[in-house]
Structure formats: structure tokens, C-alpha cells
Specification:
- The N terminus is likely disordered.
- This protein has one domain: Amino acid/polyamine transporter I (Up-down Bundle), CATH 1.20.1740.
- It is built from 18 helices and no strands.
- The chain is mainly alpha-helical.
- The structure holds tryptophan.
- The site of tryptophan has 17 residues, from helix 1, helix 2, helix 10 and helix 14.
Length: about 450
């Protein structure tokens, strides 16, 4: 790579902007939609504890490695990896980590935009009052009206991707940086407002007990694996989002401390979202916490439709979800955009539109898997299930494992310590232990068990 290509995309204005951007990437549908229903279906407390332990012991060390690789290379994940591999005189196969990541990112973005589109649709449904006084059956019918209508799904998917293109087109400072500096504080304020509403009007103590009363008897090995997978997804690890953002991180910022802050924010948002959603859901009788993916789009809207001021709060809630998804989706797009700009010497806008169109076209598969192609399954998977499974259970763990092993064992020590100069000996020792042994073993078991679980149990 020429020197000119180094840092050609720019640098965040400050460490704070990096924190907002990485938190924006991490906080998304994983926290607001997936965490509450998965925690719900595994019985709450003990699952939440394991999830938090995984974030700290596996997520944080791997995230540090990703940021380090990005800042060392100052390019797209593919070229940063390529350079780190060359500089470490290691076998060139390691650079496929970058390719795996860019591909996974586009796959995830393709279905992420469709689900985020549901949240956009629900902003309108809430504002129109469609769910006023709704019961479970009516809410379920409204939800299937949406998912069974391909054109309505495509409309929202297109709008959502358009919003992402709009931000990424502005570049690192003016686009991504300015967006997250506005969106993330807004998200926190809205979330705290929701928390206040939930404490005043919901069944907060039941939600608290559900999430924090630890009962290990309900904890299965499979739940532990789910918790690890979710920790990965929620921190945006294993595909290059964090590597790309690390490439724009100021050289003097401490990677360890910064990553700890991001992980703390991400966990806080998941917990607060869980408290809000369960307080509200528990305030209406007859709704199970284990409702599955419909928790946010069926159970929660029923509660909103029957609570004081619920419809307005519902509008705010789905705007919040859309913002969280938006600030994550831009991090799924940026690594590929950066790479296409470097590889083909084309402008940011062209690269952006080409890649978003690709994600859009692939997303049609997800759109149709809820309606006209719902019966087209291979091994029980619809197109959407297959993509979700392939990315979360195969590509991300492989990417994360590769990153941990590469930085832990293969990358030249000087390159690693050069990025970690601010870290003291004890912290460095703990990080290496987690990165070289703890994380690879844990990730390898998610990988193996995830596949075993799906096909053999
Ligand atoms: N972390 C985001 C969420 O919780 C999703 C996401 C963004 C992601 N970038 C990623 C997941 C990279 C895996 C890999 O919704």
C-alpha cells in the first residue's frame, strides 16, 4: 500500500467521537430486540450474568485486538489485515480474516435493514393509533400484515438503507462522526426517559427480579453458548466494524480504557432496554416474557396500546430502536466502502451506493422469506434463517477466533506493544491470557456447539 492510502479516510475528531461511534455500532437491534427476548426465553437472571461475564472476559479482549489491528493498519479491514500479515512475515492465509469480515458485514446489513424497517413501520403504526386498546391477537395480526406484505417491507428497507448511505457518504468526520455525536446522546436521553416512564407506569420490580434474580438451576450449557454468541454480536465483533473504526482512532488514545468504556455503555443499554421492555410487558397481564422475536413487535405494542400515554411512548420507543439500528448499520457498511475506495480508486459516494445496492438486492431474499418464499426452506432454514445462522454462528465466531489467534500468537510483538504502550504489565498479562487462551477456547466451543445444536439436537 502506498503511503497516500494510509489514513486516506481520515481520523475521528477526538477519542470521544470514537467512543460514540463504537458504542453506536455496538448498541443496536442486538441490545433492544435480541437481548430481551433471548434473556426472556432462557429464564432471565443466570443468563444475564453469564452474558455480562462473556462481555468482560471474551468480548473486551477481542475488541481490543480488533481496534489494535485497525489502528495499526489505518485502512479498511482487508488492507489493514494484509499489511499486518506481511509485516509479521506470516502465512498469507491470515489475510482472509479481512475478506470474511467484509462479506459477513454485507450479509448482516442485508437482513438488518429489513428488521430495522419493521421498527420504522411501527413508528407510523404507533403514531396512527393502530394499536389503541389492542389485544394479543390483534397485535399479532397487525404484525403479520406487515411481514406478509413484500412491498411494504421493501419500502422500509429501502428508506433505511437510504438513511445509512446518507451518513456514510459524508465520510469519517462529517458523516459518521457528526451523526454519532448527535444520535448517541439523543439515544441515551430517550432511553433514560423510557426508563423513567417504565419505573412510574410499569411493573419495575418484576422486571428487576426477572433480570437479576440469579437461579443457576435453569442454566443449561446451551444457554451459556447463546450468551457468548450474543455477547459477540452485540459488541459488533468478528467482522471488521470495530477494526474499521479503530483505523480512524487518534494515535494517543488508550485502547484498553476506551474499549472498556464502550463495553460498559453497550451492556448498560442492553440492561436498561431489558428493564424498560419487561417493566412494560409485565404491567399488562397475560404476556409471557419468553415470547421470542415477537416480544418487541407483538407483546410490547399490546402493552403500549393499553397504558396511559402509551401510544406516544410507543412512538418514542420505536424511534429509539430505529436510531440504535441506524448507528449500527453504518458500521456494517463502512468497512466495505473503505475497502472499495482503496481497491478501485473510486469515490466514497460511488462505493457507498454500489455496496448499499448490493445489500439491498440480497435483502430481497430476507423480505421474501417472510411471505412469498416462506415455504422455501433448505434443512428447515428460510433464506433469512440461513443468513442469520451463517453470519452469527459461523462467520463471526471464525472471524473472532482468527483475530484472537492472529494478534495473540502470530502478529509481531513490537507491532502489538507499539499500540498498547499505555498499558501496565499486569493489565497486559491479563489481556494476553484472555486473548490467547480464554477467548479462543470459548469461541471454538460456541462454533462447534452452535452447529451441533442446530443440526444434531
Ligand atoms: N452490534 C450491533 C447490534 O447489536 C450489530 C452489528 C453492527 C454487528 N456491526 C456488527 C454485529 C458487526 C456483528 C458484527 O445490533
Amino acid at each position: 500500500m502506498s503511503n497516500q492510502a494510509k489514513g486516506m479516510h481520515g481520523i475521528w475528531t477526538s477519542r470521544w467521537t470514537f467512543i460514540m461511534a463504537a458504542t453506536g455500532s455496538a448498541v443496536g437491534l442486538g441490545n433492544m430486540w435480541k437481548f430481551p427476548y433471548v434473556a426472556g426465553s432462557y429464564g432471565g437472571g443466570a443468563f444475564v450474568l453469564v452474558y455480562l461475564v462473556c462481555i468482560l472476559l471474551i468480548g473486551v479482549p477481542v475488541m481490543m485486538a480488533e481496534v489494535l489491528l485497525g489502528r495499526q493498519g489505518r485502512q479498511s479491514p482487508i488492507n489493514s489485515m494484509r499489511e499486518a500479515v506481511a509485516a509479521s512475515d506470516s502465512p498469507s492465509g491470515w489475510r482472509y480474516i479481512g475478506w470474511l469480515g467484509i462479506t459477513a458485514g454485507l450479509f448482516i446489513l442485508s437482513f438488518y435493514a429489513v428488521i430495522a424497517g419493521w421498527a420504522l413501520d411501527y413508528i407510523v403504526q404507533m403514531a396512527r393509533g393502530d394499536l389503541r386498546g389492542a389485544d394479543g391477537e390483534m397485535a399479532a395480526a397487525l404484525f403479520s400484515n406487515l411481514t406478509e406484505n413484500p412491498l411494504r417491507l421493501i419500502l422500509w428497507q429501502t428508506i433505511f438503507l437510504g438513511l445509512c448511505v446518507g451518513v456514510v457518504a459524508g465520510g469519517v468526520k462529517k458523516g459518521l462522526g457528526s451523526a454519532v455525536e448527535v444520535l448517541m446522546p439523543l439515544l441515551f436521553v430517550m432511553l433514560l426517559g423510557m426508563l423513567l416512564y417504565a419505573i412510574l407506569n410499569g411493573n419495575f420490580s418484576a422486571a428487576w427480579d426477572f433480570l437479576f434474580a440469579v437461579d443457576f438451576s435453569s442454566l443449561t450449557w446451551r444457554a451459556v453458548l447463546e450468551a457468548m454468541g450474543l455477547a459477540f454480536f452485540t459488541l459488533s465483533l468478528g467482522m471488521g466494524s470495530i477494526m474499521a473504526y479503530g483505523a480512524y482512532m487518534p494515535a494517543d488514545a488508550s485502547i484498553g480504557k476506551t474499549v472498556l468504556i464502550v463495553a460498559l455503555f453497550d451492556s448498560l443499554v442492553a440492561i436498561i432496554a431489558g428493564l424498560v421492555i419487561f417493566s412494560i410487558v409485565f404491567s399488562t397481564t397475560g404476556i409471557e416474557p419468553s415470547a421470542g422475536p415477537g416480544l418487541m413487535f407483538i407483546s410490547l405494542p399490546v402493552a403500549f396500546g393499553n397504558m396511559p400515554g402509551g401510544l406516544l411512548i410507543g412512538v418514542v420507543f420505536f424511534i429509539l430502536v430505529a436510531i440504535a439500528a441506524w448507528s449500527s448499520a453504518i458500521s456494517l457498511l463502512e468497512p466495505a466502502v473503505a475497502w472499495l475506495m482503496e481497491a478501485k480508486h473510486i469515490g466514497r459516494i460511488t462505493a457507498n451506493v454500489v455496496l448499499a445496492s448490493l445489500a439491498w438486492a440480497l435483502g430481497l431474499g430476507t423480505v421474501f422469506s417472510f411471505n412469498i418464499a416462506a415455504d422455501m426452506t433448505v434443512a428447515g432454514f428460510t433464506f433469512f434463517d440461513a443468513l442469520d445462522f451463517l453470519t452469527a454462528n459461523i462467520m463471526l465466531p471464525l472471524g473472532g477466533l482468527g483475530i484472537a489467534l492472529f494478534v495473540g500468537f502470530v502478529m509481531k510483538r513490537e507491532l502489538v506493544s507499539g499500540q498498547m504502550s499505555e498499558m501496565n504489565g499486569t493489565a497486559m498479562g491479563m489481556w494476553r491470557l484472555a486473548l490467547c487462551y480464554l477467548a479462543p477456547v470459548a469461541i471454538a466451543s460456541i462454533f462447534v456447539m452452535g452447529i451441533y445444536d442446530k443440526f444434531f439436537l
